[in-house]
Design goal:
Elements (H helix, E strand, L loop, with lengths): L1 E6 L21 E3 L3 H13 L5 E7 L7 E3 L5 H11 L10 E4 L4 H11 L5 H8 L7 E4 L2 H7 E8 L4
Parallel strand pairs: 4-5
Antiparallel strand pairs: 1-3, 2-6, 3-7, 5-6
Helix pairs in contact: 3-4
Length: about 160
């Protein structure tokens, strides 16, 4: 299956070294199954005057990988994302993590929960109305090397 990554740089060999820490699923290389989602993210680069590139990869699951999948914005997802955003390294027990993105609307709920304004029940109640977007985070270089095959990148313009 095809997966997509947006960046302000073009490359053909992704790695885990250039990731920021304290993201939804920890430090890793992020892609999405949804091309439109990647295009929306690419627009963020364009709005700040940077170039934007849409990278396309073929993703094939390797049965030797330790994979965690979150099917919904549930308590397990919320606890995991909050731990990762606090800088904890619980994500390191996996090679690949897949689940919903804490996009702007979802992140507001997560942020209010992490600030103690919402309790867990209130946060989960708000999240039940959200349809999860998609992200896959490749935690280990081994997962990238074995499961992702570079297809191409294209310079992206506003669409």
């Amino acid at each position: 299956m095809l997966v997509y990554h947006s960046s302000d740089r073009c490359f053909s060999s992704p790695d885990v070294k250039h990731s920021r820490v304290a993201l939804d699923f920890g430090k890793g290389f992020y892609v999405t199954r949804f091309k439109e989602q990647a295009k929306k993210y690419a627009n963020r680069f364009l709005r700040t005057g940077k170039d934007a590139y849409l990278h396309i990869f073929e993703y094939s699951i390797d049965s030797d990988m330790r994979i965690k999948i979150f099917d919904s914005y549930d308590e397990d997802w919320l606890d995991f994302v909050c731990s990762c955003r606090k800088g904890k390294d619980i994500y390191k027990q996996y090679d690949i993590i897949e689940g919903g993105v804490a996009n702007d609307k979802v992140f507001q709920t997560v942020d209010l929960y992490m600030a103690g304004i919402y309790n867990k029940e209130q946060a989960l109640q708000n999240l039940t109305y959200e349809m999860p977007n998609n992200q896959l985070c490749f935690i280990t270089q081994r997962a990238i090397d074995r499961c992702l095959k570079f297809i191409e990148y294209k310079k992206f313009n506003y669409e």
